[in-house]
């Protein structure tokens, strides 16, 4: 049996296809067309609202699972690029696990580097290189 993560990725990919969007549009058109047939009854509205609410509720979890998986993979790839790059700061590995205060500290350092680089550009200096963070 496939894992939940694998199933969530398959469903998320399937839901992003044009045929799935066409099915959703067909459901809305079908619901609209059947309105006069059922005299726009409360039951008719309740069925459509229930179906759309349940699908939306489940899709939130599937999309979140898929995004979490993709984000973790991207973070690992970025960590590998940092690890493999000569002169890169290994302290930047796994930043996503740090608390906000520590992240703000790292961010402030890099914002300062960016400000200095922009000031250097105005003065005619190149903004390339690897200054210490």
Layout: helices, strands, pairs:
Layout: H1 4-15, H2 18-37, H3 42-84, H4 100-122
Describe it.
- It is a single chain.
- The chain is mostly helical.
- The protein has helices at 4-15, 18-37, 42-84, 100-122.
- Helix 1 (4-15) crosses helix 3.
- The longest helix is centred in the middle third of the chain and has 43 residues, at 42-84.
- The radius of gyration is 25 Å and the shape is elongated.
What keywords describe this structure?
4 helices; elongated; 133 residues; mainly alpha
Question: What level of helicity do the residues show?
Answer: over 70%
Termini, distance in Å? Answer: 48 Å
Output mean pLDDT.
88
Radius of gyration: 25 Å
Name the assembly state: single chain
Q: Using DSSP, what is the number of strands?
A: 0
In short:
The protein is 74% helix and 0% strand.
